[in-house]
Amino acid sequence: MESVDAIVLAGDRGPDDPLAQAARVAGKTLVPVAGEAMLSRSLRALAAWKRLGRVFLVAPLTPDYQSAAQASGLAGGRLVMIEPAASPSASVDKALAAAGSKRPLVLTTADHVLLDHQWLDLLVDDTSPADLLVGLVRHGQVMQRFPNSRRTRYRFSDQSVCGTNLFVFRSGRADAVVRRWREVEQQRKRPWRVVAMLGWVNLGRYLAGRLSLQDGFEALSTALGVAVSAHLLNDPLAAVDVDSAADLAMVESVLAEAASQC
Description:
By secondary structure, the chain is α/β, with parallel strands linked by helices. It contains 11 helices and 10 strands. The chain is globular.
C-alpha cells in the first residue's frame, strides 16, 4: 500500500492565545490535553495511521515545539518541521512546496486531538474524481453528540454541515486553491461570506435556503477552476477541534470516557 504524506498546521497565535495563557505555555498546541501536549497527542494519533508517510509539521522551530513533536513517536525522516509563514494559507503553500508533487496528501490541524485514522482511510479511498476533497459532518450528528457545543454551521437546502479540518489534495491542481484561501481566511466564522465566493446569485440562493450542498460544491469548483468535492464522515468527533476552554473540557471528557471503556 502506497504511503500518504500529511501536512499538520500548528502555527498558532503564540502566548496571546487564551488557552496558552491559562496553561502558561508558549502556544495553544502546547496546552496539555489529559496530561499530554495537544501537539503530541494529535501527531501520535496521526502516527497510528498505517498508511502514513512523511509529516510536514508547520510549527515554530523552538525547543518546546520540537520536544512536543518528538514525544509523538514520529522521528527521523518521517517528521519535517517547517517555520510558519505569515498566514495559514502561506504556511500551507510553503509546506506543499516542501512535500513536492506526491499525491494524495492530507492536510489537517494540530488541534484535532481526536483524530482517527479510520476517517483518513475513508477520505483517501473516496472514489470521487475531485482534485480536492473536503471532510464534513452533518450538523445534526454533532449536536446530538454534543448538544451544548458551539460549532460553525453551514446551512444548505438539503442539510447543514460542520467542517472537520480534514482535506485531501488528490492532484497538483488542488494546490491552486491555496492562493484563493487568503480571501476567506478571516471569514471562516462567517459562513455567508465564504459562500459569497460562489457569486451573488449563489449567495442569494444560500441565504434563501435554496442552495444544496452538491450545488454549492459544483459552484465552488467553477469559481476556483478546480474540482472540489465534499465527503460526509459519519462520526461527530471528526468535527471537534480545540478552540476554547469549553472545547478542551469536552475533548477531555471524550478521552476519559474512551479510557474507561478500555
